[in-house]
Write a structure and sequence with these properties.
about 375 residues, mainly alpha, three-stranded antiparallel β-sheet, 14 helices
């Protein structure tokens, strides 16, 4: 059980914000799926029950993270890193393909996405990698971090899963910055990356990924094909206006005009049924989570804790930025779920484990407790 002295240091605002997002997510998932599930199998609660089960498992995993000092995770960093590589390799060997990416492993009636849990493993292992390095302000230290994360990114791109790879890049840059990397080094890498986008676009990306990027410029160039998802999502969000159409009242949602509206486009459900105010509430809750996360980064008692907290904040921020952006038509569609709201057990469990780490770092920010 959690020590009472430590429990007094819990960031209750952070935890309440996450619980608020979880509850909003359950409502949105039920609204997006109940009608179709009632027609398909007669049970409108199928997706709600599955998501509730995943939320329960994720909360349990996050609670476990609080019950021991995060410094103990240092010993697990190396085994987790290699186990993570093994799982990502296994996906490429026997994984199940869905949505154009071979990202899932199935056993029995269950399936999970190793790339989601991989984010937590990489945060842990990279924090351990950066903590003791004294050359992080030089190119050698930055290069070692890129090599550390580069192999998992390569395996994820092989699936191919561009969205998750972008999240890994966001985690890497945030942790390098907090770890002490020179801003000019990071800026140089970004400029090199910008130059390399042209060859990557032509020779690395799959045709469907290229089409999604082009739809960012003008989705109406292919309104019934690659631009359909974005157009329908923007219609849904815009039609909600200020107060929304009410729960179960969204035509785009209830008539299934928006594809994948319980996963990738869950924000369009919020925007249509709860309006601008509902969307603003969701974004405010995310803002508060990020704000408290940055406090944990600043007040952590050691460098390892600061790096862990920075990695979690970067992971969540990257997801929110990309997902909300693609729902509004300003980011390419990459299949990135919205933390705590989108349907999906693997992502939800991984995100709640991340919150457990964040709360752990903040709770143990004081070196001596009386």
């Amino acid at each position: 059980m959690l020590d009472r002295r430590l429990a007094k240091n819990l960031d209750h605002g952070l935890l309440l914000s996450v619980m608020g997002l979880l509850l909003l997510g359950l409502v949105a998932v039920f609204s997006a799926t109940h009608a179709k599930q009632a027609e398909v199998n007669g049970n409108p609660y199928t997706f709600l029950l599955r998501q509730s089960l995943a939320a329960g498992l994720g909360l349990f995993a996050g609670f476990l993270m609080l019950n021991f000092d995060y410094r103990y995770l240092e010993k697990l960093a190396r085994p987790l890193y290699f186990a993570n590589l093994g799982l990502l390799g296994l996906v490429l060997a026997v994984g199940h393909t869905a949505g154009g990416a071979q990202s899932w492993i199935r056993f029995g009636g269950f399936s999970f996405e190793p790339a989601e849990l991989s984010k937590v493993a990489i945060i842990l292992s990279l924090a351990k990698h950066l903590e003791k390095r004294e050359d992080i302000h030089r190119w050698s230290g930055v290069g070692s971090a890129f090599l550390h994360v580069g192999l998992p990114i390569a395996l994820i791109l092989k699936q191919p899963d561009l969205g998750t790879a972008l999240v890994f890049v966001g985690i890497l840059f945030a942790m390098l910055y907090v770890g002490g990397a020179q801003p000019r080094h990071l800026l140089t890498i970004l400029l090199i990356g910008a130059v390399l986008t042209v060859p990557v676009y032509f020779w690395v990306l799959e045709p469907y990924q290229k089409a999604r990027i082009m739809m960012l410029v003008n989705p109406y160039a292919d309104p019934t094909g690659n631009g359909y998802n974005v157009i329908q999502s923007m219609i849904a969000v815009g039609s909600g206006r200020l107060f929304g159409k009410g729960l179960f009242g969204g035509t785009q949602t209830q008539l299934n005009f928006v594809p994948e509206h319980h996963t990738d486009f869950i924000f369009s459900v919020i925007g249509e049924e709860f309006g601008f105010l509902g969307g603003a509430l969701v974004l405010f809750l995310y803002y508060y989570v990020f704000r408290r996360g940055l406090v944990a980064v600043a007040e952590a008692k050691d460098r390892f804790g600061s790096l862990l907290a920075a990695g979690v904040v970067a992971m969540l921020f990257s997801h929110v930025l990309i997902n909300v952006g693609m729902n509004l038509g300003v980011m390419p569609v990459t299949g990135i779920p919205l933390p705590f709201l989108s349907y999906g057990g693997s992502a939800l469990i991984a995100n709640l484990m991340g919150i457990g780490l964040l709360a752990n770092v903040y709770m143990r920010r004081q070196k001596i407790l009386f």
